[in-house]
């Protein structure tokens, strides 16, 4: 993994928009679902951070492929040291960002292996649209299911998986 100073220098050289991004390194301690993890920042004195993987939408836990998605992410990152490029927070207070393991974009990995959709915005296929197209063509993971429902549509029809 690159040293934090190297990552910061690369971000600064990339331009002002990327330079505002915060990079945090630490260990993944919990995987809630296919797009939400908990990370203990290095140093151990800071509280764990709840992170929502930006640019992807994984099935809900109570939805078809939800547990497979969560298990795939856990197998890949649980108890591993990662870097997170945090851009902002979502409406639930979770940090939004890109999870990187040994230089690999895990958000892209989840979509490319058929464990999540590329998050759409209006008519855009999203940042991971190419990975989704490839996973669909190869019928990987959830894309092998004929009746796979995007989580945003599932939530509209079924509500939250969380008990009231």
Describe the structure.
The chain is an alpha+beta fold and 164 residues long. The chain has one domain (4-156): Beta Barrel (OB fold (Dihydrolipoamide Acetyltransferase, E2P)). The protein is built from six helices and eight strands; from the N terminus they run ααββββαβββαβαα. The strands form two sheets. Strands 1-2-3-6-5 form a five-stranded mixed beta barrel. β6 (95-101) and β7 (104-105) form a beta hairpin. α4 (106-112) runs parallel beside α5. 34% of the residues are buried.
Topology, element by element:
Elements: H1 4-14, H2 16-19, E1 22-33, E2 36-41, E3 49-53, E4 56-57, H3 66-77, E5 81-89, E6 95-101, E7 104-105, H4 106-112, E8 117-118, H5 129-138, H6 151-158
Parallel strand pairs: 3-6
Antiparallel strand pairs: 1-2, 1-5, 2-3, 4-8, 5-6, 6-7
């Amino acid at each position: 993994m690159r040293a934090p100073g190297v990552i910061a220098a690369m971000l600064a050289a990339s331009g002002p928009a990327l330079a505002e991004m915060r990079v945090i390194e630490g260990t993944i301690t919990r995987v809630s679902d296919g797009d939400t993890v908990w990370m203990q920042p290095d140093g151990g004195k800071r509280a764990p951070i709840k992170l929502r993987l930006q640019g992807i939408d994984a099935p809900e836990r109570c939805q078809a492929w939800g547990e497979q998605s969560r298990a795939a992410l856990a197998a890949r990152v649980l108890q591993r040291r990662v870097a997170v490029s945090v851009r902002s927070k979502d409406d639930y207070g979770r940090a939004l960002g890109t999870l990187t393991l040994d230089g690999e974009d895990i958000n892209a990995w989840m979509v490319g292996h058929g464990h999540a959709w590329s998050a759409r915005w209006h008519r855009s296929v999203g940042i991971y649209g190419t990975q989704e197209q490839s996973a669909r063509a190869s019928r990987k993971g959830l894309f092998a299911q004929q009746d796979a429902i995007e989580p945003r549509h599932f939530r509209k029809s079924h509500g939250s998986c969380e008990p009231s």
